[in-house]
Amino acid sequence: MNIYHKILELIDQHDSFAISAHVNPDGDSIGAQLALYSFLADLNKYVRIFNTDPIPPNYHFLPFSEKIEQPCDLDGYSPEVLIVLDASTLVRIGNHLSKNLVPQQLTINIDHHASADRFGDYNLVESGASSTCEIVYKLIQLSGTKIGYKQAMALYTGIMFDTGCFRYSNSTSQVHHIAANLIDQGIEVDKIYRAVYETNPVRRLRLLTKALETVEISPDGKIAWLIISKKMFDHTGTTLEDADGIINQIRSIDTIEVAIMAVSNAQEQSKISMRSKDYVDVGKICAEFGGGGHARAAGCLIDKSCETALEMVIEITEKYIDI
Ligand code: AMP
Ligand code: MN
Ligand code: MN
Fold it and tell me: What pLDDT does 73 receive?
């Protein structure tokens, strides 16, 4: 029996579920959680969604987004099955949740990270998939239930997000077929795009302006980086989630192969985001610092100032550039 059928069988055999996903949720993790929630709820399962961080307001338009809980404590709730989405390690769902959200029976991991460490009792991991939403789509399709409007909204949002709006190399023919099927459910792609990308408060633009002033480029023009400091957040009234997406601005520089963004977080650590265009496997670079991700988009946390963290990451990146 293949892993898709096995997971459908496990869903059939159990009644209570919890769905979690990585910290600092993004379009793919949120879309996958809400589509899976809707699928399980339609099967009359008892299901709750727990995340460490709240979802950004630009995802509030998604059906069932209000079902996502950020528990201080879980009131002793222990589901039969825990399903962890879009997270390559259990601790990616957050320290507190990873220790306290303990299922009675089993954990299922559904993910598309090359760095997935397969921590579940059952692991549906496809590193060739564009997004976790693509995998959840296939799972629901295989079950024979109809993917309706609400699930289509969530799944399209996730696929759109992780493919950079169908621009990255993971925008396969299959991705476009899936997107076509989702659009056939009556979703309005322009409204989804606008909700996710064109509802920025002006403070976010002010943060972008400050961040762009810090851009530096290596002498060979192949690596570019920028810093977002705590001061910038304070001056513009922004928070960590407002920094999402800013890295794409430097990815657009013509000579660049690798873009790096260092963001100072509340714990005085540096959150490193990396993107590459063509050949550098930034997932491997981030893995050297205990993080992970994909070949073209990855991240890690470094317990140093942004300046020091950047120096360390650039040094390693130069080696990969020269390969
Ligand atoms: P980001 O730069 O935060 O948008 O993340 C890019 C990709 O790297 C996503 O697929 C993340 O799941 C992954 N990623 C980011 N930070 C980490 C981390 N600390 N550990 C493992 N994977 C990460
Ligand atoms: Mn994600
Ligand atoms: Mn993803």
Answer: 76
Which CATH number do you get for residue 109?
3.90.1640.10
Domain around 57: 3-197
Quote the pLDDT of residue 76. 84
Atom of ligand 1 nearest to the CA of 272: 2
Which protein residues have their CB within 5 A of the ion that is ligand 3? 28, 86, 131-132, 162
Transcribe 14-83 into DSSP letters: --EEEEEE-SS--HHHHHHHHHHHHHHHHTT-EEEEE-SSPPPGGGTTSTTGGGEE--SS-TT---SEEE
pLDDT at 3 over 90: yes
263 in Cβ contact with 306 (< 8 Å)? yes
Residues 272 and 241 in one domain: yes
Mark whether 191 and 230 lie in a shared domain: no
pTM exceeds 0.90, yes or no? yes
